[in-house]
Amino acid sequence: MSYLKIDHVDKRFQRGAASTEVLKDVSLVIDKGEFVSIIGHSGCGKSTLLNIVAGLTPATTGGILLEGKEVNAPGPDRAVVFQNHSLLPWLTVYDNVALAVNKVFGRTRSRAERHDWIMHNLDLVQMAHARDKRPGEISGGMKQRVGIARGLAMEPKILLLDEPFGALDALTRAHLQDSVMQIHAALGNTMIMITHDVDEAVLLSDRIVMMTNGPSARIGEVLDVHLTRPRQRLELVSDRTYIAAREAVLKFLYERHRFVEAA
Ligand SMILES: Nc1ncnc2c1ncn2[C@@H]1O[C@H](COP(=O)(O)OP(=O)(O)OP(=O)(O)O)[C@@H](O)[C@H]1O
């Protein structure tokens, strides 16, 4: 049985009499512990696909199976980390994570266990020191770390990352990519990440799913990234496998599926 199965998903949005087909026959199987990136030009339907996996948007036809069970609503087994760090501004860093932990483990773990678990997850993303700060008092990168801690603390089967580093400067982005690689190595989570960044996709992923342009976007190619882990960004710069993977994605995006802006 596959761990996560995206099974012949079509998605159509209806607005009045007009209907747009955003995704056409998208199928993909993801193994437990895999890190999969989804890359494609703006508007092709990456977020729509992630939202369907999250259960936030229904597929028009086809569906999602997680460990053989159909997904048709959001659930704690699929945590989402968004680009615009969706923390509640009136709560502290600690309380933002606590909200998710109490929701998922309120009945099964004692107060002390939940406290330890919140602190453990804040430690994982190196944010324990800022536990009493509010989102307005910390940087964008720090907010994103807290968002990741909140997602991980739910112990999801799958962590869904929607351009998690898109709004960050290059250095912060690199630090966070390293943190996510370390967390993935330590915990073995299954992760699906949307990105626009070819280097980020190659650095982090076991597989890169390349989407064709919309409307009616589909999976154009899937690239296996045969790089050993742990991966060091500086060593990879001159690694042949890395360079070849990067070139394959760039050629897909800028030669075979060049984005042409609608007039
Ligand atoms: N709720 C909705 N109703 C109607 N159309 C929608 C809705 N959500 C998304 N779309 C349309 O579906 C298409 C795909 O959007 P989506 O956000 O999934 O693309 P994306 O690849 O994630 O884009 P980007 O990379 O720019 O974030 C777009 O044309 C968008 O306008």
Automatic annotation (TrEMBL):
It comes from the Bacteria. InterPro entries: AAA+_ATPase (IPR003593), ABC_transporter-like_ATP-bd (IPR003439), ABC_transporter-like_CS (IPR017871), ABC_transporter_ATP-bind (IPR050166), NO3_transporter_ATP-bd-like (IPR005890), P-loop_NTPase (IPR027417). GO terms for molecular function: ATP binding. Residues 4-238 form the ABC transporter domain. Gene3D superfamilies: P-loop containing nucleotide triphosphate hydrolases (3.40.50.300). It is found in: Cell membrane. It holds the Pfam family ABC_tran. SUPFAM superfamilies: P-loop containing nucleoside triphosphate hydrolases (SSF52540). PROSITE patterns: ABC_TRANSPORTER_1, ABC_TRANSPORTER_2. The keyword Lipid metabolism does not apply. Keywords: ATP-binding, Cell membrane, Membrane, Nucleotide-binding, Transport. It is a peripheral membrane protein. Belongs to the ABC transporter superfamily. NCBIfam families: ntrCD (TIGR01184). This is Nitrate/nitrite transport system ATP-binding protein. It comes from Bosea robiniae. The lineage of its organism: Bacteria, Pseudomonadati, Pseudomonadota, Alphaproteobacteria, Hyphomicrobiales.
